[in-house]
Amino acid sequence: MTFNDKLHAYLQLTRFDKPVGIELLLWPTLWGIMLAAMGQAQQQGATAGLPSFKVFIIFALGAIFMRAAGCAINDFADRKVDGHVSRTKGRPLADGRLSAKEAVAAFLVLVLLSASLLFFLPIAVFYWSLGAVILAFIYPFMKRFTHLPQVFLAAAFGWAIPMAYVAIQGAPDIWCWLLFIAYMCWTVAYDTQYAMADREDDLKIGVKSTAILFGRYDVIIISLLQMLFLLVMGAVMWHYFAPTSLGIIPVFGLALVAMMFAKQNSACASRQALACFQAFLANIWVGRYIFALVATACLWTTFNG
Fold first, then answer.
1. Which of 121, 20, 18 is closest to 62 using CA atoms?
2. First to last CA, the chain
3. Cα 285 to Cα 290: distance, rounded to the nearest angstrom
4. Bigger pLDDT: 188 or 49?
5. Using CA atoms, how far apart are residues 52 and 66, in angstroms rounded to an integer?
6. DSSP string of 210-249, one letter each residue
7. How far is Cα 13 from Cα 168, in angstroms, rounded to an integer?
8. Which of 48, 67, 162, 223 could form a disulfide with 301 if both were Cys (CB 3.0 to 4.6 A apart)?
9. pTM recorded for the entire structure
10. How far is CA 11 from the centre of its chain?
11. Which one-letter DSSP state was computed for residue 25?
12. Helix H segments across the chain?
C-alpha cells in the first residue's frame, strides 16, 4: 500500500473525508460557548458578552479532534460487523486496509491532541474532560448491550457543553444542563434517523438501536424528541435574550427549525433507507442555522444593548 493509500485510509477512519459528524458536534459546542459567555456577562451585570477568541478556537479544535477519535474507536468496535453492512463494508478496518492496532493508535493520538488543548484552559476543565473521553470510548460498544446506543452517543457529543460552561463560568448551571438536555433530544432524534437507514442490516447481524426499539413508532418518537428539543431550546433562548433589546425574537427564530423537522419526518415516513439517511444529513443545516441564530443574537445584544 502506498503512502497516499494509507493516508486516504486514515482519512476514512477518522471521517475527515466526510465532515458531517464533525459539524454535528462542532455547532452545538459553539452554541454552548456563546451562551456560556452570555451567562457570564449577565452574572457580572452586563447585558451580553462574547467568548474570547482563544476559548472559541480551543473548543472548535477539541470538537474536531474528539469527533475523529470517536470515529476511530467506533470502527475498531465494529470491525467484525462493518463488512456485513452494505453502507460500511468499504471502511478501512472492514476491508483490511488498516489494522485494529492502527485504529486504536489513531484514537489515542487524537485524544492526546485534544488533551493538549486543555493546557490553555482552567484545570477544572481537565477533570470534566475525563467524562468526554470515557463516553467517547464506550459508546461504540453500547449497541451490543442496549437498544439505546444513541443516548450514549448524544452524551458523548454533548459533553462539550458543560465543559464550555466550566471553562467560561467556572461551573455548569441549570441553563447549561437544559441546553445539554435539548442537545441530547436532538441527537437521539437524528441518530435514530441514521439507524433507520441501517435497520435491516442491524437486525440481520444482531446490533441494537433506537430505530429497532421504537419500531413502527419511530417517526412519532423522533417527532416528540424534536418537539422537546424546540421547547427546551426555546426556554434557553428566552432566558438569555428576553432581558435584552432583542426580546423573544430569537425564540421565534426556532420556527424555521420546526419546519426543517417537519420536512425530515415527512421523508422518514416512507422508511426507505436513502430517505432516512437524507433526513439525517439535513440536520447539518439545523446545527448551522441555530449557531447563526445564537451568534447573531449574541453579537447584536453585545453591540446594541
1. 121
2. 59
3. 8
4. 188
5. 21
6. HHHHHGGGHHHHHHHHHHHHHHHHHHHHHHHHTTSTTTTH
7. 33
8. 48
9. 0.90
10. 19
11. H
12. 3-13, 20-43, 53-77, 100-117, 123-138, 149-158, 160-169, 174-197, 199-205, 210-214, 218-241, 249-252, 255-268, 273-281, 283-304
HSE of 139, CA atoms in CB hemisphere, 13 A: 26
Most confident of 31-35, 112-116, 202-206: 31-35
Distances (CA, A) of 10 to 5, 126, 293: 9, 27, 35
Contacts with 291 (C-beta within 8 Å, 6 or more apart), sequence order: 27, 30, 31, 34
Instruction: Return the residue matching grid coordinates 426543517.
Output: 260
Predicted local confidence at residue 95, as pLDDT: 79
Q: What whole-number distance in Å separates Cα of residue 243 and Cα of residue 42?
A: 10
Q: For 15-38, write each residue's pLDDT tens digit.
A: 888 888 889 999 999 999 999 999
For residue 47, what pLDDT band results from cuts at 50, 70 and 90?
A: low
CA triplet 158, 161, 165: central angle to 5 degrees? 160
Does residue 293 contact residue 260 with C-beta atoms inside 8 Å? no
How far is Cα 191 from Cα 210, in angstroms, rounded to an integer?
Answer: 8
Query: SS3 letters for 91-130?
Result: CCCCCCCCCHHHHHHHHHHHHHHHHHHHHHCCHHHHHHHH
The whole-number pLDDT of residue 46 equals: 74
> Nearest to residue 65, comparing CAs of 152, 125, 7, 129?
129
